[in-house]
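Reopening: Ribosomal RNA small subunit methyltransferase A still failing for me.
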Amino acid sequence: MSAEVQGHRARKRFGQNFLRDPNIIRRIVAAIDPKPGEHLVEIGPGLGALTEPLINAAGHLTAIELDRDLAARLRERFPEERLRLIEGDALRFDFATLPAPLRVVGNLPYNVSTPLLFHLAGYADRIKDMTFMLQKEVVERMAAEPGSAAYGRLSVMLQLRFAVRKCFDVPPGAFVPVPKVTSSIVRLTPLPRGRYEVDDFPTFARVVAAAFNQRRKTLRNALKALASAEIFSRTGIDACLRAEMLSVADFVRLANALSREKPETSAD
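Support: Ran it again with your exact input. Result attached.
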């Protein structure tokens, strides 16, 4: 049975767990450190536990809320000049319609966290930083280094564009209803332009996905449909390695070599 919080019944389909611990709320707001005039965007404000202190610090906030009932409550609670509320799905929202630079924050629903992070990565050039609360396991994967068990597709795809830093853990008891997992606060800061130069992003994404889709196989076998022995030789990457041993720079080098390879043309 779903828990009821402030007269609102938490909806499982939206992955709703509402932050209630005032000490944790203060700690998160301190980590974000909002300043007057900054353009803050909160994804999934819910009952407004973070919304109110963020508005008090910055003066104004844009929030994206999918739940109609919660959106109605937020409109009643905050005037339009303090809160611009967008009722809809953040996964489908065009963040380019908001003035840059953006500081994006939120307690992200765990069931859509990965696709939402990938969606936001597409707007990295418009973002100053992002501070999210996510499942601890997801944060560990986001920040993982090559060679670790947690290092994978999520690590590479995010670290291509962001410096990822875990801030602190949040216990299950800080929420209502109480989740079965520990959460963590994570900060993502866009990397300087030019840190990694990817020739063709779809090729890069395809290489990373294929490599980690069969992570127990060597790169030679996992990427046999994409990369020839000559490609490995040209890039200096050992085809006998597994995907988790490659750095982001290695994946960039491999993908760029593939995208620059001219397809053979058949004779007339």
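The two ends are 69 Å apart (CA to CA). If you still see a failure, please send the error message rather than a screenshot.
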